[in-house]
Design a protein that fits this description.
The structure is a single chain. The protein is mainly beta and about 190 residues long. It has three domains: about 1-40, no CATH class; about 45-105, no CATH class; about 110-175, no CATH class. It has one helix and 20 strands. It has one helix spanning about 10-20, and strands spanning about 1-5, 5-10, 30, 30-35, 40, 45, 55-60, 65, 75-80, 90-95, 100, 105, 110-115, 125-130, 135-140, 140-145, 150-155, 160-165, 170, 175. It is elongated. The termini are far apart.
Length: about 190
């Protein structure tokens, strides 16, 4: 509550009166826009917002400048953009085909080699790929869940990765082979 001319008025009402009473004067002031008594920050994003397939840099007039990047968790992207009040904000996004150089893959690799010959759940492989946008990736197949069952298998066509539940568990980037044995009848 605020007292003005011997009258008590709520903050909310005062805020509305001030915002409505200011008016907008669109003068450039060092990257900021003057609006009566307030100066608002501006924000720009080189990839025009939430564009996951393009690496961008988001810059605010308060000096904050952040570039999209691929964090250490596999397939992840931290995408920066401007929020409604011109702050730079980051969002984590999962790229189903992988991430490199601050962008999700959106095209088929121009060159690719998979040491286990493609989707092969029984052999740990290494997939190495280059893309038209200049991205280069190298992935090893790995056991992707702590439960000891799930395998993340990489290969050369999009989406480049499959999550597979190994029937006998996962170890060292490959499914554990079946331990079942077949008993043959004895011959007379």
């Amino acid at each position: 509550m605020v007292e003005i001319n011997n009258k008590t008025i709520s903050y909310f009402f005062v805020g509305v009166v001030l915002v409505l009473g200011i008016g907008y004067v669109m003068n450039s002031n060092g990257g900021k826009i003057e609006t009566g008594r307030h100066i608002w920050e501006t924000c720009s994003d080189s990839d025009n917002g939430l564009t996951y397939e393009v690496r961008g840099t988001t810059t605010s007039s308060n000096g904050t400048s952040l570039t999209d990047f691929c964090p250490t968790w596999r397939g992840g992207l931290t995408e920066y953009s401007c929020d409604a009040v011109n702050n730079v904000v980051g969002r984590d996004y999962y790229c189903s085909s992988g991430c490199s150089n601050g962008a999700c893959f959106s095209d088929t690799p121009t060159t690719c080699m998979d040491s286990d010959g493609g989707v092969n759940y029984n052999t740990q492989g290494r997939t190495v790929a280059d893309f038209a946008n200049g991205s280069h990736v190298e992935y090893n197949d790995y056991c992707c869940e702590q439960n000891g069952v799930d395998l993340c298998e990489y290969y050369c066509t999009l989406p480049m990765r499959v999550h597979y539940a190994c029937p006998n568990g996962c170890s060292n980037g490959a499914c554990v082979p079946s331990t079942a044995t077949t008993t043959l009848p004895t011959l007379p």
